[in-house]
Write a structure and sequence with these properties.
By secondary structure, the protein is an alpha/beta fold. The chain folds into two domains: 149 residues, ATPase, nucleotide binding domain (Nucleotidyltransferase, domain 5); 166 residues, Nucleotidyltransferase, domain 5 (2-Layer Sandwich).
């Protein structure tokens, strides 16, 4: 009987300290410690994030191993996020992974954070970790297109295999998630603002206000102009009526959300047509947005797409996606060395 492959995954790219354990492709534990300290500053403070990671990483890993019922000497390898991300945050996760692997004399596996988001679709979790749902997560067939949308990235990726991915479109400036958070900040909403825009938009009219959409060539995106236009709009309206945002909050949120989603979907439709692909996936923190999910399902009906959306807990930063990527890399014996260093700017592909 062959020995089980047990992977410890560590994620520390931004402000969430996470650890997960996967055994033979099955998720046994997925622990995330969120840093609330950044709310007071309206955004992630890198120095505070790295200090919080130092405080959280040992308890988080310990909890993940205990929940999984796995002893440290049973681990086959340790997978960790090498980048992209904040340098200080990455250093904490990588340093821990290297020291732990060295002490256990087991291999190290480096993972690209964005590749992890895409491969989150292949997490085969048991029912108790899927909150009572009986069916395993459906996974797309290769090749498929994946729209990765987060606070730091917006990309359309052609995924031909677990390790053959090509970015065919990306933002030339700001990311979609940043546009959501910036719009929320302009409105005076607390950080992180993206989920609040999603919440208020449910009660609003998405056609109440019109915002200009950038004309960007090929399959690329741009959100900087939209952010500037939105700021000017809010400033002009509040100059006329100081209570404008409070009085029209739902309509404003619904309108800016609809604009951002339209920009994303327009390019995704072109990419699907150009590549003759109907297997469509989304990944990253913004893929938790309820309107984006609903729009994708609607397009699936109209265009004959098969749409794949991760569970909410696998959309935002988590270590399960790092562990599952590590598992597939382990099968290829794709290991790294103790000389590995962080790559804050780590290109996919």
């Amino acid at each position: 009987m062959s020995k089980s492959i047990i992977i410890l995954g560590i994620e520390s790219s931004c402000d969430d300290t996470a650890a997960a354990v996967i055994k033979d492709g099955k998720l046994l534990a997925n622990i995330v410690a969120t840093q609330n300290i950044h709310k007071a500053y309206g955004g992630v403070v890198p120095e505070l994030a790295s200090r919080a990671h130092q405080k959280n990483i040992i308890p988080v890993v310990d909890q993940a191993l205990k929940q999984a019922g796995v002893a440290k000497h049973e681990l086959s390898a340790i997978a960790f996020t090498r980048g992209p991300g904040l340098m200080g945050s990455l250093i904490v996760g990588i340093s821990f992974a290297k020291a732990f692997a060295l002490g256990l004399d087991i291999p190290l596996i480096e993972v690209n954070h964005m590749q992890g988001h895409i491969l989150a679709h292949f997490i085969d979790a048991p029912p108790d970790l899927l909150k009572g749902e009986e069916e395993p997560i459906r996974a797309p067939n290769f090749p498929f297109l994946c729209l990765t949308v987060s606070g730091g990235h917006t990309q359309i990726v052609l995924v031909n295999d677990f390790f053959e991915m090509k970015v065919i479109g990306e933002t030339i400036d700001d990311a979609a998630g940043e546009a959501f958070d910036k719009a929320a900040k302009i409105m005076g909403l607390p950080y992180p603002g993206g989920p609040l825009i999603d919440k208020y938009a449910k009660e609003g009219d998405p056609k109440a206000f019109t915002f200009s959409k950038p004309k960007v060539p090929d399959l690329n995106f741009s959100f900087s102009g939209l952010k500037t236009g939105f700021m000017n709009f809010i400033n002009n309206e509040t100059a006329k009526n100081p209570n404008f945002v409070d009085e029209r909050k739902a309509d404003i949120c619904a309108s800016i959300q609809r604009t951002i989603i339209d920009i994303l979907m327009n390019k995704l439709k072109i990419a699907a047509q150009q590549n003759n692909i109907t297997q469509i996936a989304i990944a990253g923190g913004v893929s938790a947005n309820s309107e984006l999910r609903a729009t994708l399902h609607e397009l699936a009906k109209q265009l004959g797409w098969q749409v794949f959306i991760p569970k909410f807990e696998y959309c935002t930063d988590n270590a399960a996606m790092i562990a599952i990527t590590g598992y597939y890399k382990y099968l290829k014996q794709d290991f790294t060395t103790q000389a590995i260093t962080p790559l804050p700017r780590y290109s996919l592909g």
